[in-house]
Amino acid sequence: MKILVVEDEHLIANSLKKGLEQENYTVDLAFDGLKGFDLASTGEYDIILLDLMLPGLDGLSICQKLRACNNHTPILMLTAKSQLEDKIKGLNSGADDYLTKPFAFEELLARIRSLSRRPQKTNGFVLSVGDLYLDTLNFVVKRGDKEIQLSSKEYSLLEFFLRHLNQVVTKDQIIQYVWSYESDILPNTIEVYIRNLRKKIDLPFKDKPQLIKTIRGFGYKLSK
Ligand code: CA
């Protein structure tokens, strides 16, 4: 899952990124409202953590603008204010949930799980193709009865494929989703990750359909 964190306090933003990455999420950071809106409206995110008070463009405006241009990415508002009035404003502007700072990291994780459990682009929280399953709540991947251990990046890569089932995806699209925007990963590196993922989800299952297909000159496709 990819999360956008829009938060102008660098210390909080960086510690959120670090904590979330340890939980297998890919995280992009924006330190002001304009950058936040720009990333939110152009990137592919599963959840946006949005601070209320931001330089450039405040959280409520970002929320309203995104909803106005038909972007329905779940938004969890973060704010130092605890007044009921702000809570109501936040939810009216299109935010899905609300968390008052300071909050426990565990509480944040619970809210993120609850938001990602709501059906958005996918049905529920288990993604599958054929006999391959990925449980996005418990980070479990199985082919048939066999549980498969993936690294954090391999997991994100497989999740991306499953969310784009039967579609040809380019290396650039993969980079955009699996890596944060400031990482300088090269398209050729993607081939290494694809090879490693194949070694885990396809090659040990020789008698079953090989799920990751290379589409020469275009990219890759996950399908039965
Ligand atoms: Ca702030």
Query: Which strand order does the major sheet show?
Result: 2-1-3-4-5
> Secondary-structure element sequence?
EHEHEHEHEHEEEEHEHHEE
Radius of gyration: 18 Å
Q: Uncertain segments of ≥5 residues (pLDDT<50)? A: none
Q: How does the major sheet shape up?
A: 5 strands, parallel
CATH topology description of the largest domain:
Rossmann fold
Oligomer: single chain
Query: Structural class from helices and strands?
Result: alpha/beta
Q: Give the overall shape, derived from the CA principal axes.
A: elongated
Work out the strand percent.
15-25%
CATH architecture group name of the largest domain = 3-Layer(aba) Sandwich
**How many helices?**
8
Total domain units: 2
User: Overall pLDDT, averaged?
Assistant: 89
Question: Span from first to last CA?
Answer: 23 Å
Question: What does this entry look like structurally?
Answer:
With 224 residues, this protein is an alpha/beta fold. The chain has two domains: 2-117, Rossmann fold; 126-222, Arc Repressor Mutant, subunit A (Orthogonal Bundle). It is 40% helix and 22% strand. It contains eight helices and twelve strands. The protein has helices at residues 10-22, 33-42, 59-68, 84-92, 105-117, 152-163, 171-178, 187-201, and strands spanning 2-6, 26-30, 47-51, 75-79, 97-100, 126-129, 132-135, 140-143, 146-148, 168-169, 212-215, 219-222. Strands 2-1-3-4-5 form a five-stranded parallel beta sheet, sandwiched between helices. The chain has a four-stranded antiparallel beta sheet with strand order 6-7-8-9, with helices on one face. A three-stranded antiparallel beta sheet has the order 10-12-11. Strand 7 and strand 8 form a beta hairpin. Helix 2 packs parallel to helix 3 (59-68) and helix 6 (152-163) crosses helix 8. The radius of gyration is 18 Å and the shape is elongated. The model has no long low-confidence stretch (mean pLDDT 89). It binds calcium ion. Residues 8-9, 51, 53-54 line the site of calcium ion (CA).
